[in-house]
User: Fold these one by one.
Assistant:
Number 1:
Amino acid sequence: MIREMKEEDLQQCGVIYAKAFPIEYWGIDWAPDNAKEYLLDFYEQKRFIGYVYEEDDAVIGCIFALCKISGSKKEIYINEMAVLPEKQGQGIGRQLLKTLLDYSKEKGYAGVVLYTSEYAPASKFYEKNGFKLSQGTICMYYA
Ligand SMILES: CC(C)(COP(=O)(O)OP(=O)(O)OC[C@H]1O[C@@H](n2cnc3c(N)ncnc32)[C@H](O)[C@@H]1OP(=O)(O)O)[C@@H](O)C(=O)NCCC(=O)NCCS
């Protein structure tokens, strides 16, 4: 079952996030507590939109997004999403994403945007769900 996220879900979302982004693959040492803090920053944003997937009263997947004003239009930015590793590949991610895409359509928003690593398998997941590579956008950094 998918429902809107509540603040008390953040502890479990931190657990899911730390498991879904293991250090061996991502090089970042996420633990449930620092993941919860990280996710809380999204949750506290003014135009936050979040859903969780619940099974037998346990949260096993989550999506964190933000509605952004873009001139006279609005867009949704997906900040994070994760499904417990042992529950991946069962359609939970697709359902969470669909809930957000349906919400965007229902509100008449211009679209849904996200950033992900070129090398991460998640890009295939997004492609399968109708996302396309944005043309003309580059990512820059200063160190
Ligand atoms: C990415 C993620 C949220 C997808 O959730 P999920 O519940 O495993 O995905 P689903 O089972 O709903 O998959 C939907 C479709 O995407 C495909 N897919 C899912 N993960 C995939 C992957 N890693 N590589 C290729 N295809 C993938 C599935 O095969 C499925 O295709 P189908 O419709 O042809 O059957 C989940 O795998 C996850 O938490 N990954 C680790 C964290 C992560 O990468 N988060 C996103 C960062 S931006």
Number 2:
Amino acid sequence: MNAMERMQRRIFRDQKKQERLLKKYGKPRHYAGRCEECGCKEPNPVQYIDESNISITYNSPYLCRDCYIKKYGAYPHRKARLAR
Ligand SMILES: [Zn+2]
């Protein structure tokens, strides 16, 4: 196998990986209507968004603003993307 073939194979593998990740994490996690830290009712939760890692975003808890600030030490810049 020459270098060109190896490169093409790697690109193909990466694409497959991305597709798998999108399938798994493309839709937001279900939100039960309560902050996942303190349990208060929160109709507009916020969630940590990691632009480079979709699985981190997916698994980040839905939080009320107070809990978000406590957890991440910063004000959320975006509302959580919720499953409808
Ligand atoms: Zn909370």
